[in-house]
Structures are given as structure tokens and as C-alpha cells.
């Protein structure tokens, strides 16, 4: 049997997990599932009241509100997360924004804010978390990107580029950190019904609920996958399309998106 790229997680009970970007959508659903499975979870995002709702009724939940774009907030956030958890077995970084854009209507403010949140904030987090995990000698980092990273898609002009950056970043992280005993996961979801996608006015193929997405993420982590993509059919099809010669790929995408 082929060995998984990361150590499979066989039991969630007692796992100490920091979820960043978990006041709504996929992160909130993942928090609920992890807490129900016995993990101890620190839930982070900006809106404290929404975090409280996610944590409500769970004795193993802690909330930690901060803004990931605030470089100076990260060291204290890590130290508070460690106060709650003692050690970090897994951090899931999913804070992001989505500004659907065509190439003829570029808003530089949206470009800067998207790259700052979706990409630069990952580096902000990594700059404090990676040294800590190396010191611990154990633990894992999961970054939520998107299958829009695979190929240029209509309206994903800004978002797709930020998520493509994360796909590249995760590979370097794996390359460098796996030999140090750390796990690195790249989570590439397809369409999930969350506040983020509520702006979409087109039919979203393979649309999942946040709870289905959370279940798919946990299955991927349990199997020790490096890349966790879902839903499998749509994600695999898009991945395949991204690898066919340019001429056929553009034609296929025009036909699929009717654009
Ligand atoms: N939904 C989809 O179809 C889909 C598809 C592919 C990938 N994804 C990815 O999945 C992840 C979760 O997205 P979602 O769909 O669940 O959307 P969502 O419900 O809008 O969740 C985004 C989360 O990021 C947090 N956040 C935003 N800005 C922040 C900041 N400056 N500091 C701290 N937290 C911040 C938000 O909380 P606050 O507003 O409280 O800060 C919220 O908890 C994102 O990385 C997204 O790109 C989603």
C-alpha cells in the first residue's frame, strides 16, 4: 500500500486544534464537527459574537477574536491559543475574501485587500506558527485554498490568483516541513453554500453544504492526504481540465461556463 503523505489522524479525541476563519461557513461547520468528535478547539475570526455562537454549548471550545491582517496581533494570538490548548496539533487557516471580478473592471482596492487577507496573512500566521511547531517537533498546518487555483476561471480574476499562490506555498511548506516531522495539508474546496458564495448569481456545480465540506476535510485529514479536494467528481474534472493542452482547456471552459 502507498504510504500517505501525512500521518493519518486516527482519533480526534484530545486533539488540540486552532481554527482561523471559523465564525461562519466551512470553518464554523468544521469547528462543530471537531468539537463533537472530542477535539479541543480554539475558534478564531474577527466577530466575537459569531464565535460565541459557534462555541455555544461546547465545553471544549475557546474563542479568540483577532484580525489576521494585523501583523502585530499574531504573536499574542498564538500565545493565547497556546494558553488554551497547551500545544497545537493542527492549525487550520481559512480566513479569506472573495470579490468576483472581470478583467475589465479591476478594483485595485479589492486586489490589495484580497492578496493581503488571502495570501499575506497566511505568511503572517506562518511566521509565528512554523517556528513554534518546529520547537514542539510535532503538529500540522492546513491551509484552505480552492479548486479555482487549478485554472483561470471567469470572475475569479483576483480570488483564483490568491488561491493559486496558496497551492504553490503549501507545496514548499510540505517539502520543507515534512522532513521536520510536521504535517502540511492543502485544502481545495469546490463550491460550498456559505456567506462567501451567496454573492454568486450562477449555478454552482457540485454545491455542498458547509457540513459536507467539513466532513470531507476531516476524512482527508484522517487519511493523511496532502491535498484534500472536494467534491471529488467536480474537483477531479477541473484538475484534469487544467492539465489538457491550452486550446482544448479554453474551449472546454467556455462551453462549461457559457462565457
Ligand atoms: N464557499 C466556497 O464555495 C469556498 C470554495 C473554495 C474555498 N473556500 C475557502 O474556504 C474558506 C472559508 O470560506 P467560507 O466559504 O466558509 O466563507 P465565510 O463563511 O465567509 O468564512 C470566511 C471566514 O473568514 C473570516 N475572516 C475574514 N476576514 C478575516 C480577518 N481579517 N481576520 C480574521 N478572520 C477573517 C470570517 O470571519 P469574520 O468576518 O468574523 O472575521 C469567516 O469566519 C476560505 O478560505 C474560502 O476562500 C470557500
Core attributes:
binds NADP nicotinamide-adenine-dinucleotide phosphate; 7 strands; seven-stranded parallel beta sheet; 259 residues; alpha/beta
Q: Within the largest sheet, what's the order of strands?
A: 3-2-1-4-5-6-7
Give the uncertain stretches in residue-range form: none
Query: What is the CATH topology?
Result: Rossmann fold
* Associated small molecules: NADP nicotinamide-adenine-dinucleotide phosphate
Structural class: alpha/beta
Strand content: 5-15%
The major beta sheet can be summarized as: 7 strands, parallel
List the helices and strands and how they pair.
Blueprint: E1 16-20, H1 25-36, E2 40-45, H2 48-55, E3 61-65, H3 73-85, E4 90-93, H4 108-136, E5 140-144, H5 159-177, E6 183-189, H6 210-223, E7 227-230, H7 232-241, H8 246-257
Parallel strand pairs: 1-2, 1-4, 2-3, 4-5, 5-6, 6-7
The structure holds NADP nicotinamide-adenine-dinucleotide phosphate.
